[in-house]
């Protein structure tokens, strides 16, 4: 079997067997990788220290028929706040799980990889809830399943006022097209989409992780933007994100 070396971010960990872990990595050259790390739950394992959630690492991996195997790993960068602050950890897990589900195996993900590094580096200095929301909206832009916000997905009319959002179409609807969809029996899953929500989402998409955000948001608009995002993610993934339970637990 061939062996390769790649930089990667650890975006998922699952215990396996008595002492092993299945690690999900995001690699700029290879996209999503799932690999087993044998014995890494043993305290004396040379892999134990570096194979932690959110770490940026360099891994040596041997290809396998069903799962690759991690043969070696060295830490490039860790994010202390993500391992000591439970709120940051919970929202970071949401970002990581979103990236894991959006990334594609054996397909380069350089842009998503670079953006995720920026996100995790900035996480400690920001409101974790808003940071996670911005991160998920931005990661969608690299996935091929990004949403459209400015123009009606039916008639292509530019949106200026309140309207609707269709999960099935992955885009906004003007008031006339949205109202028509909502009247259809068994029709498209449509959600109200206020102009203030649209402007907030556009601000999140343009958020610069290198500098502090200069905008403020009301609780109502924040909740509406979260509902839109989570509804769309549930629609495309066809199952809920497990990390949401962690967020609910930390309150």
Structure, described:
- The protein is of the alpha+beta class.
- It is 38% helix and 23% strand.
- It is built from eight helices and eight strands.
- The strands form two sheets. The chain has a five-stranded mixed barrel.
- The longest helix is centred in the C-terminal third of the chain and has 19 residues, at 219-237.
- The radius of gyration is 20 Å and the shape is elongated.
- It starts with a strand and ends with a helix.
- The mean pLDDT is 93.
What is the CA-CA span between the terminal residues? 46 Å
* Gross geometry: elongated
Total of DSSP H or I helical runs spanning 4+ residues:
8
Percent strand: 15-25%
Strand order of the largest sheet: 1-2-3-5-4
Helical residue percent? Answer: 25-40%
Main pleated sheet: 5 strands, mixed, barrel
Question: Quick one: how many beta strands?
Answer: 8
Catalogue the unreliable spans.
none
**Chain oligomer state:** single chain
Average pLDDT: 93
Q: Structural class, judged by helices and strands?
A: alpha+beta
Q: Compute the gyration radius: what is it?
A: 20 Å
Write down the secondary-structure element order. Answer: EEEEEHHHHEEHEHHH
What's the arrangement of secondary structure elements?
Layout: E1 3-16, E2 20-27, E3 31-37, E4 56-62, E5 68-77, H1 80-84, H2 86-102, H3 110-122, H4 128-140, E6 163-166, E7 171-173, H5 175-183, E8 190-193, H6 195-205, H7 219-237, H8 243-250
Parallel strand pairs: 3-5
Antiparallel strand pairs: 1-2, 1-4, 2-3, 4-5, 6-7, 6-8
Helix pairs in contact: 2-4, 2-8, 3-4, 4-7, 6-7
